[in-house]
Amino acid sequence: RLPPISFLFTSTTVFLSKQWYQRRVREAVVSTQSTGDFSKLQGNVNPKAPVHSTRIRVGRSIDGFGLSPGITKEQRLGVEKLFSSASKKFEGELAGTYYPLTGMEEKVRQQLVDDHFLFVSGDPNLKVAGMERDWPEGRGIFHNDKKTFLVWVNEEDQLRIISMEKGGDVLGVFKRLASGIKAVGDSVMAECGKGFMLDEKYGYVHSCPTNLGTGMRASVHIDLPGWTKEGVDKLKARCEELALQPRGTRGESGGQTGHTYDISNKHRLGYSEIQLVQTMIDGVNKLYDEDVALQKKHGL
After folding, report:
1. In a 3-state reduction of DSSP, which class is residue 160?
2. Are 56 and 216 in contact (CB under 8 A)?
3. Distance CA 242, CA 231 (A)
4. Residue 200: partners with Cβ closer than 8 Å, 6 or more residues away
5. Which of 141, 155, 128 has the alpha carbon at shortest distance from 67?
6. Catalytic: 23?
7. 60 is known as an active-site residue
8. Are 159 and 27 within 8 A, CB to CB?
9. Bigger pLDDT: 126 or 49?
10. CA diameter of the chain
């Protein structure tokens, strides 16, 4: 008799985590208390750069509840109930509304679709890992009134905390994210006395091994017509040198169209949040400067 898929996925996650990151964890221990130290960040994305939007997210798991591949239905509902209650304590810019997927009104659903906030079922990787069991129970979306602070509940991770806005003010988006992480953590702690899953060596624990460490992905959507003309493969190679990851604007597996790219930090583990955001800011500025030169080279 084969073990359940959740066991297989969890075992694979542990194995891959050890193999994938063994060199980096020998070299660096993750800094997990750095999101509030904004003074260490130098500069911002060049305001002349054609950045459409900025988005920074982290994943978090609440201690005492299972990770998505093995979480029980009761635990998933418990996470949702806990966050729904905790989110009512958010104040100021972070105050907003939680929308459960179960029983969602069509008007609300359509608005979330129009805002590009709604996550949906059907991802083959999540399905085979057992992460979409009992869909859509226990899942939902929170966003503040300005729609610049979001939390996805029980998607891939128990919590995905997101800060986003139009334009390229990476520093402003990061500050809001740090405030949001603290608000979520403090509110959850006040509700149940539990904190986030955290390992002193490996950092924050997530369902996917690629998110071990900070669990943070800081990205911008930016036009790079010069690099597009130079060649996408060359852009990928340059991003590798800058510790960045280029994607299409339709997501990780959505492909590339036009000359607008999603550029983000490549690493999660072995670096602090400050270091990763700084890497993204510096790298995007370099890509923009190089793109201006490439536009001239190709007569654009």
Report:
1. strand
2. yes
3. 17
4. 29
5. 155
6. no
7. no
8. no
9. 49
10. 64
- What tokens does 154 get? 């029980």
Question: Any catalytic annotation for residue 137?
Answer: no
70 vs 31, residue with greater confidence: 70
156 is a catalytic site residue: yes
- Count CB atoms within 10 A of the CB of residue 2: 6
Mapping DSSP onto H, E and C, the string for 256-272 reads: CCCCEEEEEECCCCCCC
pTM of the model: 0.87
Residue range 122-140: mean pLDDT, rounded: 91
Catalytic residue among 55, 57, 60, 76: 57
3-state helix, strand, coil in the chain (%, to 5): 40, 20, 40
CB atoms within 10 A of CB 134: 14
Residue labelled with tokens 């923009």: 288
| pLDDT higher than threshold 70 for residue 8 | no
Q: Which of 160, 176, 214, 228 is catalytic?
A: 160
Is the previous residue joined to 136 through a cis bond, with omega within 30 degrees of 0?
A: yes
